[in-house]
Amino acid sequence: MRTLLLDRDGVINHDSHDFIRTAADWRAFPGSLEAIVRAQRAGYRIVVVSNQSGLARRLLGIADLNAIHRRLQDELERIGGYIDAFFFCPHGPDEGCQCRKPAAGLLQSVQQRLGIDLQGTPFVGDRLSDVEAARAVGARPILVRSGMHAVPDDSELEIFDDLSCAVTALL
Questions:
Q1: DSSP label at residue 4
Q2: Per-residue pLDDT of the chain (171 residues; tens, 9 = 90+)
């Protein structure tokens, strides 16, 4: 089975400078959930790989994060989809962990725990840190402009407006 790796905030859902703290804060981008379903129907397993420094900053707790992911799952289930696995880094940017993107530890955990080779596996993100993490494990970085961060014009990167456009190109 093929795998599609997705960052969460800025890719699947709207991001916020104040962090997505509750399930009520979480709002899917138009077309993102449908794109996930299309990828699944084409034979992709969907794995979310996300930095969640709001946990380290005590802006939300693990129960809040689980509720956010439950809302994502519930909305996907309504249209016939689901997320196969969630992987997240709970650390802050200054903690020096190996799992916070752009470090490769979170993706290496995906590889080890799911028993898959990430070589060439598409990873859709909205930041250069996602690109760096993907490259560190040999995955295929894909950037979307839907996030809050500037996406450089780089002829060596695959860049799309949003997840729906990226999945259309992938399929």
A1: E
A2: 899 999 999 999 999 999 999 999 999 999 999 999 999 999 999 999 999 999 999 999 999 999 999 999 999 999 999 999 999 999 999 999 999 999 999 999 999 999 999 999 999 999 999 999 999 999 999 999 999 887 877 778 999 999 999 999 999
The CATH number of 2-170 is which of 3.30.457.10, 3.60.21.10, 3.40.50.1000, 3.40.50.2300?
Answer: 3.40.50.1000
Tell me the domain boundaries of the chain: 2-170
CA 90, 28, 85, 128 dihedral sign is negative
pTM across the whole model: 0.96
Beta bridge partners of 13: 9, 28
Name the nearest CA neighbour of 93 among 52, 133, 50.
52
161 is catalytic: no
Distances in Å between the Cα of 107 and the Cα atoms of 14, 88, 104, 127, 132 are 23, 10, 5, 15, 11
Q: Does the annotation count 7 as an active-site position?
A: yes
The three-point CA angle 122-125-130 to 5° equals 90
Q: What is the Cα–Cα distance from 162 to 145, expressed in whole angstroms?
A: 6
SS3 142: strand
